[in-house]
Amino acid sequence: MRAPVTAVRTGVHRFRTPTPETDGTLCWGATTAVTVEVDAGGSTGLGWTYSSPAAAAVVTDVLSGVLCGHDAFDIPGAAEAMHRAGRNLGTRGLFAQAQSAADIALWDLKARLLDVPLADLFGRTRHRVPVYGSGGFTNLDRTQLAEQVAGWVAAGCTAMKIKIGESWGANPGRDLARVRRLRELAGDGVELMVDANGGYSPGQARRIGAALDELGVVWFEEPVSSDDVDDLGALRGELRCDVAAGEYVADAREAARLAPAVDCLQLDVTRCGGYTGWLRCTAIAVAAGRQVSGHCAPSLHVPVAAALPELRHVEWFADHARLEPLLVDGAPPVIDGELLVPDAPGHGMTLRNPEESS
Ligand SMILES: [Mg+2]
């Protein structure tokens, strides 16, 4: 069975946030989805990443030439060829995001050519994928946070995560007050999670972590920078709450370095080499005895997350939960705290405005 790739198209879709959004170490007013469509055998596969328009240029300038003429059924070969083509650019970061979008498009294309749901191609170990509500930006006021948490409660989420580490750890008192507020809003039965986005120093993270333990928080994400693997591992040994990181992992080697230092390895299909890379990285997490959580891009994680017995959950990130139904038709809904795994061919999603691609 062969189907040479005949065309690769990219699109840049920018979605303004309702108001500026801030975490511990960054502020933004828009989110950009870079889409990749790949044609072969009369079908089209769709992938995307959340990145800069520069990721579209990487696809157009580098990856398109690699993929055109390549057999759409040979996804491992395509992944290796794309990786090799990035040697002089650096294969991580932006390049890995571009490759991820292309890889996702290839998997979607393969499933559509076979006329099967992508979840069945990967092997479906579950029909619903658990999510946690995620957002709680540091610049939300009390009313805005209450509205966001009410939305998660209404969707049946049993775990919820807010941002802390405000202004690179400059306001720890407010960070902890907001965690206590989250407990009031969420109720006793909900697992509390926090993400500092690397905003604390190691000592600060230890002190904040001890306070979080007293508040019953179960998840402390990026208490320090993910580049400080030794500090992450030390915090993991000292704190009761789980230490989590991994959203910037771009390949299996990075996953192997980080897995021992965390309780749960976060992996992002739009950053770590698409579905091909995600499956490789999850195997490393499993071999290290670690759980896996899907980072952001909830709609794209569904088919591959449904194939992983060791999955903890997928992040239902407020920005992406809002924009994915605007970007595509067929984005899976959350019901009773779980994303439904689609039964349509491929991942079941198509671009709403394909005329914006070129
Ligand atoms: Mg994070």
From TrEMBL:
<dbReference type="GO" id="GO:0016836">
    <property type="term" value="F:hydro-lyase activity"/>
</dbReference>
<dbReference type="InterPro" id="IPR036849">
    <property type="entry name" value="Enolase-like_C_sf"/>
</dbReference>
<dbReference type="GO" id="GO:0000287">
    <property type="term" value="F:magnesium ion binding"/>
</dbReference>
<protein>
    <submittedName>
        <fullName>L-alanine-DL-glutamate epimerase-like enolase superfamily enzyme</fullName>
    </submittedName>
</protein>
<dbReference type="Pfam" id="PF13378">
    <property type="entry name" value="MR_MLE_C"/>
</dbReference>
<dbReference type="InterPro" id="IPR013342">
    <property type="entry name" value="Mandelate_racemase_C"/>
</dbReference>
<dbReference type="InterPro" id="IPR029017">
    <property type="entry name" value="Enolase-like_N"/>
</dbReference>
<dbReference type="InterPro" id="IPR046945">
    <property type="entry name" value="RHMD-like"/>
</dbReference>
<dbReference type="Pfam" id="PF02746">
    <property type="entry name" value="MR_MLE_N"/>
</dbReference>
<dbReference type="InterPro" id="IPR029065">
    <property type="entry name" value="Enolase_C-like"/>
</dbReference>
<dbReference type="InterPro" id="IPR013341">
    <property type="entry name" value="Mandelate_racemase_N_dom"/>
</dbReference>
<keyword id="KW-0479">Metal-binding</keyword>
<dbReference type="GO" id="GO:0016052">
    <property type="term" value="P:carbohydrate catabolic process"/>
</dbReference>
<keyword id="KW-0460">Magnesium</keyword>
<feature type="domain" description="Mandelate racemase/muconate lactonizing enzyme C-terminal">
    <location>
        <begin position="142"/>
        <end position="242"/>
    </location>
</feature>
